[in-house]
Design a protein that fits this description.
The structure is a homodimer of 187-residue chains.
Chain A (H helix, E strand, L loop, with lengths): L8 H15 L6 H8 L3 H4 L6 H21 L7 H18 L1 H8 L10 H19 L4 H20 L9 H17 L3
The structure holds a DNA duplex (19 and 19 nucleotides).
Chain lengths: 187, 187
DNA sequence: ACCTGAACACCGTTCAAGT
DNA sequence: ACCTGAACACCGTTCAAGT
């Protein structure tokens, strides 16, 4: 005898994202998700293989949102302005979803890692722009320099690792400006 | 009636470090540590407040090792050469202790965070050198740029986030050289 | 003074039984 | 076809009882 569905995969992922931002990964438990969507924990396993798979869905949903945010930065800007727009937008996104942003870069169990194609799509605008800045010969190294700095800055900022006072916004703009200059110079 | 001690805080921290590097934080359980030092899990609580406190001790021991490694880089080198020496040494250290290195920067529970003085001591050589490179007016922003890039690069490298092929060592040297140039330019 | 088994509250996960 | 309670294996942690 069929039973009506009392929840959906979308509701489960949404509940997981909310719990994650509210209390960090430790609070993202199957029991808490189940309670949030109105079923018992075992029922979640009808829609999701296990907790790792749910974490992966959360990361992938976040990557799709991020891609949209980055795509909203005009492609017609000159490379320095576009890079600034992309990295500022990325930073704003990380501030809005700090826990999920952290998971994107975290080295969790293999089953939690997102589809590489989604990562590539989200990263594409930054790669294009750094290639335009640094030229094709060193575009890979330039992209790695930019993504490393940006990721490191956001990671440290969001974990309160910048503890010597000063203006963090100012440090971001300083780093952005100097990196942009450095990558534009001939090597 | 006194009982002879069957373990020590040092052995416990050493066992925890070994377990951490062998299997990541999930494998660093009180039960596994207890087994490694030859007691039952409840006995650990005679020497350590709880698991978070043990994680903190692991992080702090790692910071002391890191400080020693960085201190072995000659202070007499000119600033660009000294910065290169420091960051290459830091990178080598991170490759040797990837899981512990990750914990230093991780945003774990407050009880796991290391003594800020230890962080400051380990960071001091890099701060000195970036100040010498960029000058006193922007030394804080320059230091944040360098630490953000280095942390981000190592974090991405160690979590296999550089997945577009190419030579990662080469990308490190490229970023190091360009950052050094950028911070040396007048602003 | 240190160590232990037993116990408790919590996880994730499986599965037979219900509708 | 979906949902559930019960159960299992695992955590961290406490504590009374042993030596």
């Amino acid at each position: 005898m069929p039973t009506p569905e009392r929840t959906s995969l979308d509701s489960i992922v949404e509940a997981a994202r909310t719990l994650l931002e509210a209390g960090g990964p430790d609070r993202l438990t199957m029991q808490a998700v189940a309670e949030a969507v109105g079923v018992r924990a075992p029922s979640l396993y009808k829609r999701v293989r296990n907790r790792d798979a749910l974490v992966r869905l959360v990361i992938e949903a976040t990557l799709r949102d991020l891609e949209e945010v980055l795509r909203s930065v005009p492609a017609e800007l000159d490379p320095p302005a576009r890079l600034a727009g992309l990295l500022r937008a990325f930073r704003a996104f990380a501030h809005e979803h700090p826990a999920a942003h952290h998971l994107i870069f975290a080295n969790g169990p293999a089953a939690t890692r997102p589809d590489p194609a989604l990562l590539a799509q989200a990263a594409a605008p930054v790669l294009e722009t750094t290639a335009a800045l640094a030229g094709p010969r060193r575009s890979l190294e330039a992209a790695r320099t930019v993504t490393a700095w940006t990721h490191g800055f956001l990671s440290m900022e969001l974990s309160s690792a910048f503890n010597l006072g000063g203006d963090v916004d100012d440090a971001f703009e300083y780093g952005l400006a100097h990196l942009t200059t450095a990558l534009t110079l001939p090597d």
